[in-house]
Amino acid sequence: MSYSPGRVVFAAGALIGSISAIAVAAQAQMSHMTHADGQAPAPQPIRATMSELHAHGGVPKGWKFLLPSGDAVEGRKVFVAMECFACHDVKGESFPQSSKIPRANGPALTGMGAHHPAEYFAESIINPNRVIVQGPEYTGTDGLSKMPSYADSMTLKQLVDVVAYLKSLKGGEMGEKAGAMKMK
User: Which residues touch 117 (CB under 8 Å, ≥6 apart)?
Assistant: First the structure.
């Protein structure tokens, strides 16, 4: 069997195309996997020209804000330090019995990690009146959220970490928590 140069180039191109397709598919599968430490890998960068940005309203096509991965263990420490437990119950967790903040009846957070994306938790913490859940345990007499804003009192690292902690609060149903973290 004889091979012409054009046939070899075509076969090499087809092989490279197949390998590229396999690599793209593998990377897409890996983007849903997590690292050994339980954190999701950083998303791939999106590359765009300035004209492409302007053509899509100033952001790349398909872009969505993603909160960086945080550390759930550090986030639990923030939850305790900010005394979030004074208003929010997390079944299976052990928190200090006393707090400087008066006890209030905020929504229980047990199992909530499975019900909301990280970005929703982040906005609820820094802009609690963006989404106002109707109900006496959620809203005050003024019709606004009972949740105070932490936009001026929490660092970005604290926010990202406490959101990671909230995302770790998963269970079969609200009212349960898988793998409760204990106080150290």
Answer: none
Looking at beta carbons, which pairs linking 64-70 to residues 24 or more positions away fall under 8 Å?
65/119, 66/118, 66/119, 67/118, 67/119, 67/122, 67/160, 67/163, 68/42, 68/160, 69/39, 69/40, 69/42, 69/160, 69/164, 70/157, 70/160, 70/161, 70/162, 70/163, 70/164, 70/165
> What is the C-alpha to C-alpha distance for residues 112 and 124, in angstroms, rounded to an integer?
13
Task: Quote the CA–CA distance of 156 and 148 in Å, as a whole number.
Answer: 17
Indicate the residue type of 92.
G
Contacts of 27 (CB under 8 A, 6+ apart): 44
d(CA 112, CA 18): 42
How far is it, in rounded angstroms, from Cα 157 to Cα 146?
Answer: 24
Mean pLDDT by runs of 10 across the 184 residues of the chain is 51 42 39 46 85 90 88 97 93 89 86 94 96 87 93 97 96 45 40
Question: Which one-letter amino acid corresponds to residue 184?
Answer: K
DSSP 104: -
Crossing angle (nearest 10°) for helices 156-168 and 72-81: 110
